[in-house]
Amino acid sequence: MFHWSVVFILLISCLPGLALMSYGIVHTLGRLPIPEGKKKLPPAPILRLLVFVQTGLVVTLLAVVGAYFAPRAGLADPFLLAFAQGEGGFRLWELLRPQLLAGLLVGAPGAAVFLAGYYFVFRPWLDDATVASMEQFRFASGIWVRVLYGGVVEEVLIRWGLLSLLAWLISLLTPGGGVTATGVWLSILVSGIAFAAGHAPSYAAAGCKLTPRFWTAILVLNLWVSLYCGWLFWQHGLAAAIVAHMLVHAAWLPLDLRVARRATA
């Protein structure tokens, strides 16, 4: 059954991340030189509003898509449903607690593997200019953009909306029209590739060189996060995926700062 209240809850949850992201990305763009022959950007307040509205519309669309297709793909979230139906505090905590625990237990080692891959494999492999641009972009974004936009908004977009839609579409192609584990894993993989590709425009605007090595790095690293966040969403619920995704960004900042201090020492 479709619940507009679920959509409303998700949109309210996304508002802080959307607001911070729209401010951060305009701030970053404003610091970049304007290529010769290109028009000047609109004033910053107007550009922030445009980014906020545009991204907000996409989030709204995929929140609606997820609310419609997640239950049909066997991906309904009992906590969200209970919250939307106005159930009491203790019942909500009973539903939320296992999601939070799963997000922590899976997200902590998942983040450790991600960060080890970035610092020991891909960072030394990428060209210096791309690494510098990536890290400058992350510093400019700030921790709250990374945690609230990356952790909440991206999970609503990719896991709640896109993954649910893909799982339902793939179920139509299976014998009997049922949702299978293979179908869900395929949905996790495809939505993860889309998630990885979605990072490229921001990094390109920040000055990264879109080389084969760059594409390999963002594909492998973001696909890794998508695999375990997608599994958490499938097996436990959206909050579990959000917690796990937040852990990546929360653990990444101290390491970024440590690397930056060593570089300037």
Automatic annotation (TrEMBL):
<dbReference type="InterPro" id="IPR003675">
    <property type="entry name" value="Rce1/LyrA-like_dom"/>
</dbReference>
<feature type="transmembrane region" description="Helical">
    <location>
        <begin position="143"/>
        <end position="170"/>
    </location>
</feature>
<keyword id="KW-0645">Protease</keyword>
<keyword id="KW-0482">Metalloprotease</keyword>
<keyword id="KW-0472">Membrane</keyword>
<feature type="transmembrane region" description="Helical">
    <location>
        <begin position="214"/>
        <end position="233"/>
    </location>
</feature>
<feature type="transmembrane region" description="Helical">
    <location>
        <begin position="6"/>
        <end position="26"/>
    </location>
</feature>
<feature type="transmembrane region" description="Helical">
    <location>
        <begin position="182"/>
        <end position="202"/>
    </location>
</feature>
<protein>
    <submittedName>
        <fullName>CPBP family intramembrane metalloprotease</fullName>
    </submittedName>
</protein>
<feature type="transmembrane region" description="Helical">
    <location>
        <begin position="239"/>
        <end position="257"/>
    </location>
</feature>
<dbReference type="GO" id="GO:0008237">
    <property type="term" value="F:metallopeptidase activity"/>
</dbReference>
<feature type="domain" description="CAAX prenyl protease 2/Lysostaphin resistance protein A-like">
    <location>
        <begin position="142"/>
        <end position="249"/>
    </location>
</feature>
<keyword id="KW-0812">Transmembrane</keyword>
<keyword id="KW-0378">Hydrolase</keyword>
<feature type="transmembrane region" description="Helical">
    <location>
        <begin position="100"/>
        <end position="122"/>
    </location>
</feature>
<keyword id="KW-1133">Transmembrane helix</keyword>
<feature type="transmembrane region" description="Helical">
    <location>
        <begin position="46"/>
        <end position="70"/>
    </location>
</feature>
<dbReference type="Pfam" id="PF02517">
    <property type="entry name" value="Rce1-like"/>
</dbReference>
